[in-house]
Amino acid sequence: MTRLRTALAGVTAVAVAFQAIAPLLPDAVARAVSDVLIALAVGSAAVTYLRRVRREATRRARAAVLVGGLAAAGWAIANALFFAYEITGVRSLVTPAVCLSVGAALLLPLGVHLLTPPVPGAERYRRLIDVSAVAGATYAVAWLYLLEPARHRGPGGLSTLFATLATGPELAAAAVALVTMSRNLPTRGGRVPRLLGATSVILAVTGIAGLRNTVDGRQWYSLGVGAGYLLAAGVIAVTCHLPTPRPEPAGTRRMISGGWAILPYVPILLAVAASAAQQIGAGVLPPVLVWVLLATFLLVLLRQFLTVAIVGRLAMTLEANQAELAYQADHDSLTGLPNRSCFHRRGGELLAAHPESSVLLLDLDGFKPVNDALGHAAGDEVLRVVAARLAGVVRPDDLVARLGGDEFVLVLAGEPDAAAARIREAIAAPIAVGGTTVRVGASIGLATARPGAGLETLVREADAAMYAAKAVTKGRRMAEPRPCETSPAIDSAAVYRAHLASGPEAR
Fold first, then answer.
1. In angstroms, rounded to a whole number, what is the distance separating the alpha carbons of residues 382 and 380?
2. Is beta strand 407-412 parallel, antiparallel or unpaired with respect to 358-365?
């Protein structure tokens, strides 16, 4: 960064020094020196850019570097032709030189555009509106300070059409550059496009100032024109050595608070201020200026409507994404049932609302052979079918969740025996998977709520009951084992009222 600042400071010093000594030189010599310096600067940039084309990693970066090389080459050839004209006086050299200069000015913002990430969706239309509005505002300023004065110069002045055609391409290029520079670019990734965009703006301002010099009969280098062209060429010569920015997203903070976002509004504010000064000074605004300003403000209004639509759509998308994330955080991705964390939250709420609730823990019997014989995809399908059946046999107030693996848990707000029977019957039904039919069973443990017993306690008791049922009944029949005598937490027959098991073993 320090080297870049030093190089830019050196280029600026050379431009300012030339502007200072140009009045001391014969006009032809000053033009020749300017042409040579510009041709050398942008010629070296063209060589550097063209050598880098094949080394760039992406197609967009290669296109950007190629466009930059062509723009620099066109500008270098143009100034070489201008220099030849100064030496030989052959007038026919001027026309191709002017065409090449205008072409280079138009290619430059295209390269700036290619150096920035692609604009998605409706944002493209907003950028197009921005370019049109900025171009209208810059044209309004140019009309006040160049085109309108040129129209009143009489026979020696410039026609409005010629002045418009002479400045229009550079004004449009500057508008594209300003809008591109205003994008939310990362700090490091935004250096190259913003430096080149600034070059395009410098060229536009210098071109307008040079045309005003022609209208007023001043020396060509007046109004900073001599320094402007040298400064633009020097910035290109410096920028061509910087690495092509890598695609990287701008941080949220920069997207919200980046000062570059106000850049397109600067020409609009200048147009308003210039029009106000004209109205105060002359008491009237030219009709062309009025229509240009009206069109510009209409575009700004349209842009705001489009912004509101984009923001509204982003808000809806954000709300949908938040809802989706909340759902994913609470639900099992395979079965769609509430997951462990959601079960502990909602299960506690259900127990508090229905003190007579029961916790039922279910572990599939014969699930591993299905996995081993048919594969994990078949096992996943079995889990999805079982989950759907469980959700279909409980009431709306009940809770079904998957704890993990082939283990499910339910909180039943009503009578558990009827629900257990429905669950046993549903799980025992055949399951079509992988071109065949399989059956799985389930060992079920049940714990009934009681005062002072929280959800964690009931889950542990249901888990113990389920393993007892699996060991005693092997998943074939209901079991009524006695309460565990070794644990003071499960010393009531009411807690372990039933240990249930259902379904035949898997085949």
1. 5
2. antiparallel
When pLDDT is averaged across residues 155-180 and rounded to a whole number, the result is 75
Residue type, 135: A
Whole-number pLDDT of residue 153:
61
**DSSP per residue, 349-401:** HHHHH-TT-EEEEEEEESHHHHHHHH-HHHHHHHHHHHHHHHHHHS-TT-EEE
**How confident is the model over 360-415, as pLDDT tens digits?**
999 998 888 888 888 889 999 999 999 999 999 888 889 999 998 899 999 998 77
Q: Which amino acid is at 102?
A: V
Tens-place pLDDT, residues 469-488:
888 655 443 333 333 332 33
- Closest CA relative to residue 45, chosen from 245, 237, 261, 332: 237
Determine the Cα–Cα distance for residues 217 and 213; give it in Å rounded to an integer: 6
> Which of 3.40.50.720, 3.30.365.10, 3.30.70.270, 1.10.3720.10 would CATH assign to domain 340-502?
3.30.70.270
Least confident of 266-280, 306-320, 483-497: 483-497
Distance CA 225, CA 231 (A): 10
Range(s) for CATH 1.20.1070 in the chain? 2-246+258-319
- Was domain 2-246+258-319 assigned CATH 1.10.10? no
